[in-house]
Protein backbone atom coordinates (compact mmCIF):
# COMPACT_ATOMS: atom_id res chain seq x y z
CA UNK A 1 0.00 0.00 0.00
CA UNK A 2 1.29 3.46 -0.93
CA UNK A 3 2.00 5.85 1.97
CA UNK A 4 0.66 9.38 2.08
CA UNK A 5 4.21 10.72 1.72
CA UNK A 6 4.67 8.62 -1.44
CA UNK A 7 1.33 9.88 -2.77
CA UNK A 8 2.34 13.49 -2.07
CA UNK A 9 5.61 12.94 -3.94
CA UNK A 10 3.73 11.35 -6.83
CA UNK A 11 1.43 14.40 -7.01
CA UNK A 12 4.33 16.85 -6.69
CA UNK A 13 2.96 18.28 -3.44
CA UNK A 14 5.41 19.50 -0.83
CA UNK A 15 3.97 19.88 2.66
CA UNK A 16 6.03 22.60 4.34
CA UNK A 17 7.01 22.84 7.97
CA UNK A 18 4.17 24.55 9.85
CA UNK A 19 4.74 28.23 10.48
CA UNK A 20 4.52 29.63 13.98
CA UNK A 21 1.42 31.68 14.78
CA UNK A 22 1.97 35.43 14.94
CA UNK A 23 -0.99 35.90 17.26
CA UNK A 24 -2.47 34.18 20.32
CA UNK A 25 -3.82 30.83 19.10
CA UNK A 26 -2.61 27.34 18.27
CA UNK A 27 -2.45 26.10 14.66
CA UNK A 28 -4.23 22.84 15.55
CA UNK A 29 -6.12 21.49 18.53
CA UNK A 30 -6.73 17.82 19.25
CA UNK A 31 -9.67 16.53 21.24
CA UNK A 32 -10.00 12.77 21.39
CA UNK A 33 -9.42 11.46 17.86
CA UNK A 34 -10.31 14.73 16.14
CA UNK A 35 -7.93 17.46 15.09
CA UNK A 36 -9.27 20.92 14.31
CA UNK A 37 -7.04 23.30 12.39
CA UNK A 38 -7.08 27.04 12.74
CA UNK A 39 -7.80 28.87 9.51
CA UNK A 40 -4.97 28.54 7.01
CA UNK A 41 -4.36 30.95 4.16
CA UNK A 42 -2.43 30.55 0.91
CA UNK A 43 1.03 31.40 2.21
CA UNK A 44 4.02 29.75 0.62
CA UNK A 45 7.47 30.59 1.96
CA UNK A 46 5.87 33.19 4.24
CA UNK A 47 3.99 35.13 1.55
CA UNK A 48 0.46 34.81 0.19
CA UNK A 49 0.63 33.44 -3.35
CA UNK A 50 -2.30 35.76 -4.21
CA UNK A 51 -4.05 38.67 -2.57
CA UNK A 52 -7.42 40.19 -3.27
CA UNK A 53 -11.04 39.39 -3.94
CA UNK A 54 -12.47 36.77 -6.22
CA UNK A 55 -14.70 38.36 -8.81
CA UNK A 56 -12.74 41.61 -9.04
CA UNK A 57 -9.00 41.09 -8.45
CA UNK A 58 -8.62 37.36 -9.08
CA UNK A 59 -9.95 34.69 -11.41
CA UNK A 60 -11.59 31.47 -10.27
CA UNK A 61 -8.43 29.63 -11.38
CA UNK A 62 -6.25 31.83 -9.16
CA UNK A 63 -8.69 31.26 -6.30
CA UNK A 64 -8.42 27.52 -6.87
CA UNK A 65 -4.62 27.72 -6.64
CA UNK A 66 -5.02 29.67 -3.39
CA UNK A 67 -7.45 27.04 -2.05
CA UNK A 68 -5.03 24.26 -2.96
CA UNK A 69 -2.17 26.00 -1.12
CA UNK A 70 -4.44 26.66 1.86
CA UNK A 71 -5.33 22.97 2.19
CA UNK A 72 -1.65 22.02 1.91
CA UNK A 73 -1.04 24.42 4.80
CA UNK A 74 -3.81 22.68 6.77
CA UNK A 75 -2.01 19.38 6.22
CA UNK A 76 1.20 21.03 7.38
CA UNK A 77 -0.24 21.96 10.77
CA UNK A 78 -1.87 18.52 11.14
CA UNK A 79 1.46 16.87 10.39
CA UNK A 80 3.05 19.15 12.97
CA UNK A 81 0.50 17.92 15.50
CA UNK A 82 0.64 14.15 14.79
CA UNK A 83 3.96 13.70 12.99
CA UNK A 84 2.70 11.43 10.20
CA UNK A 85 -0.17 12.07 7.78
CA UNK A 86 -0.70 8.29 7.47
CA UNK A 87 -2.38 8.53 10.88
CA UNK A 88 -5.33 10.36 9.32
CA UNK A 89 -8.27 7.94 9.29
CA UNK A 90 -10.56 10.32 7.44
CA UNK A 91 -11.18 13.94 6.60
CA UNK A 92 -14.39 14.91 8.37
CA UNK A 93 -15.22 18.53 7.53
CA UNK A 94 -13.82 21.49 5.62
CA UNK A 95 -14.87 25.10 6.09
CA UNK A 96 -13.71 27.39 3.31
CA UNK A 97 -13.97 31.17 3.25
CA UNK A 98 -13.57 33.05 -0.03
CA UNK A 99 -12.74 36.77 -0.08
CA UNK A 100 -15.49 37.79 -2.50
CA UNK A 101 -16.37 40.92 -4.42
CA UNK A 102 -20.01 41.97 -4.43
CA UNK A 103 -21.98 39.67 -6.69
CA UNK A 104 -19.40 36.85 -6.71
CA UNK A 105 -21.28 33.61 -6.03
CA UNK A 106 -18.88 30.90 -7.22
CA UNK A 107 -17.31 30.07 -3.86
CA UNK A 108 -17.95 26.32 -4.30
CA UNK A 109 -15.89 26.29 -7.51
CA UNK A 110 -12.98 27.91 -5.68
CA UNK A 111 -13.06 25.65 -2.61
CA UNK A 112 -13.58 22.56 -4.77
CA UNK A 113 -9.85 22.67 -5.60
CA UNK A 114 -9.06 22.00 -1.94
CA UNK A 115 -11.62 19.18 -1.82
CA UNK A 116 -10.19 17.60 -4.96
CA UNK A 117 -6.68 17.82 -3.54
CA UNK A 118 -7.74 15.92 -0.41
CA UNK A 119 -9.39 13.21 -2.50
CA UNK A 120 -6.29 12.93 -4.70
CA UNK A 121 -4.13 12.45 -1.63
CA UNK A 122 -6.34 10.31 0.61
CA UNK A 123 -8.80 8.66 -1.79
CA UNK A 124 -12.04 7.65 -0.04
CA UNK A 125 -10.63 8.83 3.30
CA UNK A 126 -10.39 12.32 1.82
CA UNK A 127 -14.12 12.69 1.10
CA UNK A 128 -15.66 15.13 3.55
CA UNK A 129 -18.53 17.40 4.48
CA UNK A 130 -17.92 20.99 3.40
CA UNK A 131 -19.11 24.57 3.51
CA UNK A 132 -17.92 27.26 1.10
CA UNK A 133 -18.69 30.70 2.47
CA UNK A 134 -18.36 34.20 1.04
CA UNK A 135 -16.49 36.78 3.10
CA UNK A 136 -16.35 40.47 2.31
CA UNK A 137 -12.84 40.68 3.79
CA UNK A 138 -10.25 38.18 5.01
CA UNK A 139 -7.11 38.84 7.07
CA UNK A 140 -4.13 40.20 5.18
CA UNK A 141 -6.24 40.34 2.00
CA UNK A 142 -5.87 36.58 1.50
CA UNK A 143 -8.32 35.28 -1.11
CA UNK A 144 -9.01 32.01 0.74
CA UNK A 145 -8.94 30.73 4.30
CA UNK A 146 -9.66 27.10 5.14
CA UNK A 147 -10.27 25.18 8.36
CA UNK A 148 -10.14 21.38 8.45
CA UNK A 149 -11.31 18.69 10.85
CA UNK A 150 -9.77 15.21 10.58
CA UNK A 151 -10.13 11.98 12.52
CA UNK A 152 -6.84 10.34 13.45
CA UNK A 153 -5.74 7.02 14.89
CA UNK A 154 -5.39 6.64 18.65
Structure characterization notes:
The chain is α+β, with helices and mostly antiparallel strands. It has one domain (28-152): 60s Ribosomal Protein L30, Chain: A, CATH 3.30.1330. It is 31% helix and 26% strand. The protein contains 3 helices and 7 strands. The protein has helices at residues 4-11, 60-82, 107-122, and strands spanning 28-31, 34-37, 43-44, 47-48, 88-99, 129-135, 144-152. The strands form 2 sheets. It has a 5-stranded mixed sheet, with helices on one face. The protein has a two-stranded antiparallel sheet with strand order 3-4. β3 (43-44) and β4 form a beta hairpin. The longest helix is centred in the middle third of the chain and has 23 residues, at 60-82. The relative contact order is 0.25.
Mean pLDDT: 97
The count of β-strands is 7
Distance between the termini: 21 Å
Count of alpha and pi helical runs: 3
Instruction: Estimate percent helicity.
Output: 25-40%
Strand order of the largest sheet: 1-2-7-5-6
Residue stretches low in confidence (pLDDT < 50, at least 5 long) are none
CATH level 3 topology: 60s Ribosomal Protein L30, Chain: A
Helix/strand class: alpha+beta
CATH architecture: 2-Layer Sandwich
Characterize the main sheet.
Answer: 5 strands, mixed
CATH superfamily assignment? RutC-like
- What best-fitting shape do the alpha-carbon axes yield? globular
Strand content: 25-35%
Taking all Cα atoms into account, the compactness measure Rg is 15 Å
CATH class division: Alpha Beta
Task: Give, in order, the helices and strands.
Answer: HEEEEHEHEE
Amino acid sequence: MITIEEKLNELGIEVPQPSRPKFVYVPAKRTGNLIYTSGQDCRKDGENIYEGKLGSDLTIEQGQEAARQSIINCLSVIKGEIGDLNKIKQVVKMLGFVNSADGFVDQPYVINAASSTLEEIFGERGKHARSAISANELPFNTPVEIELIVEVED
